[in-house]
Amino acid sequence: MSIAIAMNAQNPFFQPFSGTPHGTVPFDKIEIPHYEEAVDRGIKLGLAEIDAIVNNPEAPTFENTIVALERTGSDLDRVLNVFYPLSEAMSSPEMIQVSDNITPKLSNYATSISLNEGLWERIKAVYDASDLKAMDPEDAMLLQTTYDSFARSGALLKGTDRDKYRDLSVRLSELTNKFGQNVLLELNTYEIYLTKDDLDGLPESSVEAAALAAREKGRDGEYLFTLSQPTYIAFLKYSKRRDLREKMYRLYSGRNRQGQYDNNPVIREIANTRLALANLLGYKSYADYTLERTMAEKPDNVMNLLNQLRDAYRPTQLADFEELTEFAHKNGLEGKIEPWDYSYYSNLLRQERYDFDEENLRPYFELNNVIDGVFGLATKLYGLTFEENKDIPVYHPDVQAFEVKDANGDFVGVIYTDFFPRDSKRPGAWMTDFKSEWKNADGSISHPHVSIVMNFTKPTESKPSLLTPYEVQTFLHEFGHSLHGLLASTRYKSLSGTSVYRDFVELPSQFNENYMRRKEFLDGFARHYQTGETIPAAEVDKIIASSRFGAAYACLRQLNFGYVDMAWHSIEQPLADDADVDAFELTAGSSVAMFDPVAGASMSPQFSHIFAGGYAAGYYSYKWAEVLDADAFSVFAKNGIFDQESARKFRENVLSKGGTVHPAELYRRFRGQDPSIDALLERDGITRPEPEKPATAPLHTPLDR
Predict the structure, then answer these.
(1) Does residue 2 carry a pLDDT above 80?
(2) What does the alpha-carbon distance between residue 328 and residue 15 come to, in Å, rounded to a whole number?
């Protein structure tokens, strides 16, 4: 047996995972060279499956064409569903090289399918011969989405336009991959060493973590700060050293603007490539193209939402800034508030007004207790239980794996938790899955294996991991996404779990965040890690009372992201090679700007959500879903936050259906009516000036397309 053949035989991706509990990923057996080898094999097998459909001598039917297509690519999915999550959580130069190698291959594979004329002819034949209204609704949705996916991926193109589409798709994949890599690689270059004299105001947890990080680098007596999210947020919020806050802000906001990891030219080319793709498919902008398959449907409806929220929140934000400026001047600030001042003085004002400091509450949110509380929410609402299984392989010692069962004790799926920062992990928090839910041809269930990944405050030598209320809220958010995956009950993988419209996908996650404001929830798990004392009622009252503090600022900040995203993807003419990224961003967000521009600081070069993730012309969806989540939670606020009937309706109509039904209809089934923005404004304490108040939310969600 040759060496190559022996290696092939040992590749764990070459057969379904069967030697682990529940067929979970055998991380301990996977080596980096296995990935590209398995991708090459998966592409070959996938193309062979496509050829079998195209060359089927029988007339095209729903089963032999649409369902057959749905079930192709399982071998390729098996490797990609491991590689991509780990490329974000366990990156390395070797993983990056694999990503560079497979990106053009995968793009070519995708376009070879979408531009396969024989396959398209069969799909179109089934579509043209079908009465969607007479079909089973889930079958009808699969047929519709399959047809739309091919039509929107160049199937209608002819001649040289097909080659042009292929080239543009490959290039876009390369560019978005490069953008994300640049963000991660430059982030890991920042090491800011400070002395004891530089630490004034910083919480003990931050100081201990910085001391430990410096010792690990062999620099005892110093304090190492990075630009990881927990470190950066805490520094700007608590450091009394304005000069150092400014330094940290400029470093954080000045990333990926020059040198080896400069993303400015990448941004321009991504925007132009997306425009070219949209034009090729008959759309005037990329926003017009991508929004067609969303609840919003078109850019005007997105801008309507952003503008109405801006007009509702702007007066409160201006009044808040006037008050904050006066407060800051009384506390030693000279001149105007700069971006590196807002968190610091805002936190001081909140402490004065509510006697509330998130840092003081860390002892009540020890991570293991929080896990019990967050998982326990799903027990109260949906009857789920979670039990760690140490026999399930994990990809890093920090990771835990839990079996999930329903109220009857039946297996539901697996959830992995990965909580702490490391150099190989990108910043932020996210949910993904190693395997989604679907029904096999024999009727058996593919149980979902999901993961939630965050960057929480790590344990130190003297303390366990103690979270802030904000970090607990982040946990609740990502856990909401995981429930969307775990509780899916669909026949088809492509319609399962979080495979929904982008502006609906954040509803389950943001819905969960509401529980952070509820005393009944916090009382169930928030207790002092040393004394066991339950969090005092007065502290819970402060969390609830202060939850509205800064709501207008937070809203306008999110709206700024939305406006900038829409601007990049609403261009109708290509950007010049020397187009000024900073100037473009400033113009886009000018109507919600809260600070004077800072030279050398902008967010676009690090805006991974829209330039490397799936939120291009979709960042508005966070605010769109916020309207939905506030409106949805108003049902629980009225009936009881653990009300079983309300939970049943939410599970059956939102969490379990995936993309099998139009989200507007799913929401109406749960709520009994269309959403209103009133619940969001009430939650945030915003009074909208008359006569601008509309009766319902600015959500255009027709069922008939």
Answers:
(1) no
(2) 63
